[in-house]
Design brief:
This protein has helices at about 15-20, 30-35, 40-45, 100-110, 125-135, 160-175, 205-220, 220-225, 230-235, 245-250, and strands spanning about 5-10, 50-55, 70-75, 80, 95, 115-120, 145-150, 185-190, 260-270, 275-285. With about 280 residues, it is α/β, with parallel strands linked by helices. The protein has a single domain (about 5-285), classed as LigB-like (Protocatechuate 4,5-dioxygenase, Chain B). Bound molecules: 3,4-dihydroxybenzoic acid and fe (iii) ion. 3,4-dihydroxybenzoic acid binds near residues 14, 190, 238, 274 and 275.
């Protein structure tokens, strides 16, 4: 029996959320409403821990630099160390990979004409570790292997929403072609509206964010046509991270003739630090 995508999880990855967890501040008046929004998902994933997670995220100049800007990177290592982003590495476990499944996805997706970069060594930053902390809390070891898929949304030119959705479809085909009975989740991270720089720093567009949530649930093919300029104009310069959610959505089976996914949970919260936070869990029927 082959592997399958069982669910997709979407979440923002604000570094201040990681700091609140690491410093034991999750119950404070500022943070409690944010973490309450993840309770349902955390209970669900405790009972539905997958055999592997394909975690789509972006590096923030920690593993990569302007010297090397791959558009899409897949991590094939057995272990991914936690990056030091300037304050020491977060006190979270290193991330175990799944080299066999990752190598298979690389082989299959590259043969489907997506030119992935292969990372045999990769440090992972808050883009990957904060979503793990939000869903799994503070375990001694992460409960399942993680395959990092890094998307360049930092330095233009960045990939289109359409390209991201199509990558998700290719990943789903790759997973379903893996000859082992694995349950695999795909996570799309980053966003929602935020701008960390310039005169518009602090921009939040709750209306646009919520329409994005409506559209990624109900009509991702149409959402995939939204151009970069709309993300940046409406959701701020870092709002472009949201294209990574389309990779996760592209891997759901309704985009290949299957039934619509079940919406387990949807959450939106303003603010965490300078950003809006969005979260969604979709289950393949
Ligand atoms: C911040 C950084 C991020 O990468 C992000 O997606 C949101 C917020 C920050 O530094 O506050
Ligand atoms: Fe970010």
């Amino acid at each position: 029996m082959s592997a399958r995508i069982s669910a997709s999880v979407y979440t923002s990855h604000v570094p201040a959320i990681g700091a609140a967890i690491d410093q034991g501040n999750t119950e404070s008046p500022y943070w409690e409403p944010l973490f309450a929004g993840y309770t349902k998902s955390r209970e669900w994933i405790a009972d539905n821990t997958p055999d592997a997670i394909v975690l789509v995220y972006n590096d923030h100049g920690n593993a990569f630099s302007p010297d090397l800007i791959p558009t899409f990177t897949i991590g094939l290592a057995a272990s991914f160390p936690v990056a030091d982003e300037g304050w020491g590495p977060r006190p979270v476990p290193d991330v175990a990979g799944h080299p066999e499944l990752a190598a298979h996805i690389a082989q299959s997706v590259i043969q489907q004409d997506f030119d992935l970069t292969i990372a045999n060594e990769l440090q992972v930053d808050h883009g990957l570790t904060v979503p793990l902390s939000l869903m799994f809390g503070q375990p001694d070891a992460w409960p399942c292997p993680v395959i990092p898929v890094a998307v360049n949304v930092i330095q233009y030119p960045v990939p289109s929403g359409r390209r991201c959705l199509e990558l998700g479809k290719a990943i789903r085909r790759a997973v379903e072609d893996f000859d082992d009975n694995l349950e695999v989740q795909i996570w799309g991270t980053g966003g929602m509206s935020h701008q960390l720089q310039g005169p518009r720093a602090g921009l939040i567009n709750a209306e646009w964010d919520n329409v994005f949530l409506d559209r990624i649930i109900a009509d991702p093919e149409d959402l995939a046509e939204v151009p970069h300029i709309e993300y940046v104009r409406e959701a701020g310069s870092e709002g472009i991270e949201l294209v990574m959610w389309l990779v996760g959505r592209g891997a759901m089976s309704d985009l290949d003739g299957g039934p619509a996914p079940e919406e387990l949970h949807r959450f939106y919260h303003v603010a965490a630090s300078n950003t809006a936070v969005g979260h969604l869990v979709l289950i393949n029927s």
